Amino acid sequence: MTAPNLARRLLTETPGWSTTADVIVVGSGIAGLTVALRSRAAGLSVLLVTKTDLSAGATAWAQGGIAAALGPEDCPDEHITDTLAAGVGLCDPSAVRVLAEEGPEQVRSLVDLGARFERDHHGDIALTREGGHRRDRIAHAGGDATGLEISRALLAALDRIVQDPRIEVIEHALVTDVVTDDEHRACGVMLHVLGSGRQGGVGLAGGRAIVLATGGLGQVYAATTNPPVATGDGVAAALRAGAEVTDLEFVQFHPTVLWLGRSASGQQPLISEAVRGEGAILRDVTGRRFMSTRHALGDLAPRDVVAKSIVAAMADTGAEHVWLDARHLGRQFLERRFPTIVARCRDHGIDPVADLVPVAPAQHYASGGIRTDHLGRTTVESLYACGEVSATGVHGANRLASNSLLEGLVWGQRIAEHLSDRLNDGPTAAKPPTPRPAMMEHRGRPGLLESTARAFVQSAMTGGAGVIRSTSGLTELRQRLSALATERTVVTPGPRTWETTNLYAVATVLAAHAQARTETRGGHWHSDHPDRDDRNWRGRLVSRLGPDGTLQTWFEHFDGPAEHQSREHEDRAPHGGAEWTEAR
Ligand SMILES: Cc1cc2nc3c(=O)[nH]c(=O)nc-3n(C[C@H](O)[C@H](O)[C@H](O)COP(=O)(O)OP(=O)(O)OC[C@H]3O[C@@H](n4cnc5c(N)ncnc54)[C@H](O)[C@@H]3O)c2cc1C
Questions:
Q1: How far apart are CA 119 and CA 126, in angstroms?
Q2: Does ligand 1 come within 6 angstroms of the Cβ of 213?
Q3: Which residue puts its alpha carbon closest to atom 11 of ligand 1?
Q4: Secondary structure (3-state) at 316
Q5: 3-state class (DSSP) for residue 126
Q6: Mind listing the pLDDT tens digit for each residue in 172-230?
Q7: In terms of Cα–Cα distance, which of 31, 25, 379, 34 is closest to 208?
Q8: Beta strands in 345-406 (DSSP E)
Q9: Cβ of 458 less than 6 Å from ligand 1
Q10: Contacts for 325-332 with beta carbons within 8 Å, 24 or more apart?
Q11: Which of 263, 418, 534, 535 has its CA 20 to 30 A from that of 162?
C-alpha cells in the first residue's frame, strides 16, 4: 500500500518579524546547548530557539547516566564492542568509534563546565553498569538525576554569557519549517513565538547553518517516557525540507516503565536500568525470575531483549505487567542511589523498599532520525541534525543504554568545530531569507491536521507499531493513517495543529518502514517474521519526500560483514540505493 501525501510546508501566518545569526540552533537539550555554547565560543553568532522553557526536553529527565570508557579497566574498544552488539549489525562502526574514542574527553569537558558527577572514595568519577555494557562505564549525578545536573550545568554556562549580544535565546518559539533557498540550501527557519512585542507571532530567522536538535518523537505513541515537547518536529521539518530520514522503524521501548494501568497515557515514569544495574531483579506475576534463561547477561541484557522477554512473560501469565524486585537493596541504598525514582513510585502509592514495582515496556527512544554523517551534516546543504533527532549510525537497530547523552555531546562538539571551520572563513552576515508563497499559503490538501487527531494517531501507533508488530497490525495501521489524510481539512494554524501534523508525518514514515522490514531485529520485532534476516535486511531503509509530498522509500544494503560496514555521505548514493517497492 502507498503512503498518503504529506504536507511540504506547514501553513502559518505571514511572518511579522525577522532576525539573523550565523548559526540557528533549534532545541535546548544536551545537543542544542552544546552546539550553541561551542559555536559561540568559536566566534560565531548564535540564535538558540526552543519550543517551551529551556529545560523542557528529554535531557533533564535522563536518570541513569552518560556512558564513556573512563574506568581504569575500560577502553574505547570495549565500549565499541558493546555498542555494536546492541545495534544488531546495523551500526556504522566508524561512527561508533567516534563516539567511544571522543566520549571520555567530552565527559571531562562537561566536568570542566561545572557538571558535578558522583565520585568514588578516590575522588574519581563513580561508574556504574547498565544493560548491554560489560564494564562499569556509566557516570551519574544526583543519584538518578544525571540529566538534570547536565542540563543545569549547560544552562548555567548559557547564563554566564547572557549579556553577550552575539547569542540570542528565544524561548516558547516553535520552529515550523526549515527554509531553503533556490539552490536548495537551508538558509533559515520559520518560527512561531508565543508572546507579544517585537518577537511575538510568526517570524523568519536567517542563518548560514541550521542545526536541528529537537529531540525525540515519543509522543507519537500513547505511552512514552518522553516529555510533551517530543513530537518529532525535527524529523518532520527535515522531511519537508527534502532531507533523508532513516532507521525510523527502530523504536526503543524501555522495558521498565512504571505501569499505571491500561488507560495511562502521555509521559510515564521511568524506572532506570541502573536499578537493575545495582541488582534489582525482574519477576513475572507469579514471582518467577525469567531473564536468566533468556540471555547471558540475564536482567542486564540489551533493552530490546529485556522488553521482548517481558512481553513474552506477560503473555505467558496473562498479566499486563511484570514485577521489578528491588526490595533486597534496602531502604538506605535505594533512597540514596535512586531518590527520584523512589519518590516517583511513592507518589503512586508504591514503595520500592517494601513493594514489588509493576513495570511494562513503553516507548523511550528513537534510534533512527534525520540521516547525518560524522559532522552532523544532513543530505540538505547547510542543514545539520544533532542528538536524538539525528541518525548518525551510532545506534543501528537499538541504542545501547546511556549512549544518547554522549552522542549529543560528541556530535554537538563536532558540529560546532566544523561550523567554526566552515563559517569563520566564509562571507560574513546571514541574510533573512525571502519567504516564498508556499511557506505561508495552504495550497489544497494535504494541510494541517486538527489537534483532535493526535490521540487517534497515538492509539493507532501503539496498537500497530508497538513492541510487537505484525503484518495485519501494520496493514491496518497504515490504512487508518491513510484514512485520516482524506479527512483533513483546512484548520487554523497553531502549535497544537502543527505538532499533530508533525506526529502524523513521523507516524506515516515509521509505519511504512516497519511494514517494509520483514524481519526481527533490535527495536523492530515482527511476529510474522521472527528471525533476523541478514541476507535481505542488513541495511537501512531511507525515506524522503518528493516535491509533491509523496514518500519515497528505498533500501540500502550494507556491503561486507556486519562488523565492517561504514557509510559516509561521500561514498553513498543518496538516490542510488535499491529502489523500494511496496510488494517486496
Ligand atoms: C525518562 C528518560 C530517561 C533517560 N535516561 C537516559 C540516560 O540515563 N542516559 C542517556 O544517555 N539517555 C537517556 N535518555 C535519553 C536522552 O535523555 C535523550 O536522548 C537526550 O537527552 C536527547 O537530547 P537532545 O538534546 O537531542 O533532545 P532533548 O533534550 O529532548 O531536547 C530537545 C529540545 O528541542 C526542543 N524542540 C522540540 N521541537 C521543537 C520545535 N519545533 N521548535 C523549537 N524547539 C523544539 C525541545 O523543547 C527541547 O528543548 C532518557 C530519556 C528519557 C525520556
A1: 5
A2: yes
A3: 402
A4: helix
A5: coil
A6: 999 999 999 999 999 999 999 987 666 779 999 999 999 999 999 999 999 999 999 99
A7: 25
A8: 357-366, 369-371, 383-385, 390-391
A9: no
A10: 325/280, 325/281, 325/282, 325/283, 325/356, 325/357, 326/275, 326/278, 326/279, 326/280, 326/281, 326/352, 326/357, 327/352, 327/353, 327/354, 327/355, 327/356, 328/279, 329/278, 329/279, 329/280
A11: 418
Q: Are 184 and 380 in contact (CB under 8 A)?
A: yes
Helix or strand run (H / E) with residue 169:
strand 167-170
| Mean pLDDT (whole number) for 72-85 | 96
d(CA 329, CA 318): 28
Could you tell me the pTM of the whole model?
0.92
- Ligand 1 and 221: CB distance under 6 A: no
Which of 8, 577, 584 lies closest to 246 in space, CA to CA? 577
Atom 35, ligand 1: residue with shortest CA distance: 27
* Axis-axis angle for helices 146-160, 93-113 (nearest 10): 60
Q: Summarize pLDDT for 426-462 with one digit per residue, the tens.
A: 666 667 777 654 443 444 445 788 888 999 999 999 9
DSSP code, position 267: E
Query: Which one, of 264, 254, 271, 262, lies nearest residue 366 by Cα?
Result: 254
Question: Which atom of ligand 1 is the closest one to the Cα of 499?
Answer: 41
Residue of 404, 413, 415 with the most ligand 1 atoms within 8 Å of its CB, for mutation:
404
- Neighbouring CB atoms inside 10 A of 527's CB total 12
Q: What is the pLDDT of residues 277-323, one digit of tens each?
A: 889 999 999 999 999 988 988 998 878 889 989 999 999 999 999 99
Task: Please name the residue that has the C-alpha cell 511572518.
Answer: 15
What pLDDT does residue 209 have? Answer: 97
In the chain, the amino acid numbered 242 is G
pLDDT tens readout for residues 79-136: 999 999 999 999 999 999 999 999 999 999 999 999 999 999 999 999 988 888 999 9
State the helix-helix crossing angle for 403-424 and 93-113, rounded to 10 degrees: 90
Ligand 1 atom nearest the C-alpha of 215 is: 27
Atom of ligand 1 minimally distant from the CA of 364: 53
- Alpha-carbon distance of 9 to 3, in angstroms, equals 17
Which has the closest alpha carbon to 57: 248, 223, 212?
A: 212
Contact assessment for residue 281 and residue 325, using Cβ atoms and an 8 Å cutoff: yes
pLDDT on residue 64: 85
Active site residues: 303
- Contact between 172 and 52 under an 8 Å Cβ cutoff? The reply is yes
The answer to whether the CB of 58 is under 6 A from ligand 1 is yes
| Whether pLDDT at 486 is above 70 | yes
- How many residues are recorded in the chain? 584
Residue 30: CB within 6 Å of ligand 1?
A: yes
Pocket lining: 214 vs ligand 1, CB cutoff 6 Å: yes
CA 331 to CA 335: how far, in whole Å? 6
Atom of ligand 1 nearest to the CA of 49: 43
Residues 6+ apart with CB under 8 A from 179: 186, 187, 188, 189, 190, 204, 206, 433, 435, 439
In the block, residue with C-alpha cell 529485556: 306
